[in-house]
Write a structure and sequence with these properties.
- This protein is an alpha/beta fold.
- It has two domains: about 1-35; about 40-155, Cupredoxins -  blue copper proteins (Immunoglobulin-like, Sandwich).
- Helix content is about 20%, strand content about 35%.
- It has helices at about 1-5, 10-35, and strands spanning about 50, 55, 60-65, 70, 75-80, 85-90, 95-105, 110-115, 120-125, 135-140, 150-155.
- The strands form three sheets. Strands 2, 3, 4, 6 and 9 form a five-stranded mixed beta sheet that branches. A four-stranded mixed beta sheet has the order 1-5-11-10, with no helix packed on it. A two-stranded antiparallel ribbon has the order 7-8.
- Mean pLDDT is about 80; it is low at about 25-35.
Length: about 160
């Protein structure tokens, strides 16, 4: 405080402005961190199954909402041998998420992400499943998968 009294008035104003900026930045970072920690765990969300709709172009289409910490729907039914287009709509404002499903032997290879701040919260992915079965997908960010951010692609 003694140093404060020896500062010129203009230096004090500058010091106060710098302190205000640092405080505001710290509050903003805390808000971002808290926003990424909220959300309903996928383990508390029931199964929401959707069968892909086939368009005139023969492509099976499914819209998926990517929330913190669940996918809606979290069970997707598609047909083998027909192309699939998933439209991922990331609903979380600040938390990063992704959708990962790595089963190349079945024609499925998905790894689409949205960072902390994204101006395009919608991502598209296309693949053609080749083998019937049930294939898990998940969010590979941090502990999101352990919080239940998982789902299943069912290929018939």
């Amino acid at each position: 405080m003694l140093a404060w009294s020896f500062m010129k008035r203009s230096e004090r104003r500058s010091s106060l402005a710098s302190s205000a900026i640092v405080t505001a930045a710290g509050a903003a970072l805390a808000l971002v961190a808290l926003a990424g920690c909220g959300g309903t765990p996928g383990s508390k969300v029931g199964v929401n199954e959707v069968t892909a709709r086939t368009g005139a172009d023969g492509v099976q289409a499914v819209d998926i909402e990517v929330h913190s910490f669940y996918f809606k729907p979290n069970r997707i039914v598609v047909e083998a041998g027909k192309p699939v287009e998933l439209t991922l709509k990331f609903k979380s404002l600040f938390a990063p998420h992704n959708m990962t499903c790595k089963h190349p032997d079945a024609g499925i290879s998905i790894d689409k992400s949205k960072g902390i701040i994204s101006f395009d919260p919608t991502k598209h992915v296309r693949f053609t499943p080749t083998k019937a079965g049930e294939y898990e997908f998940f969010c590979g960010v941090g502990s999101h998968m352990m919080k239940g951010m998982t789902g299943t692609i069912v290929v018939r």
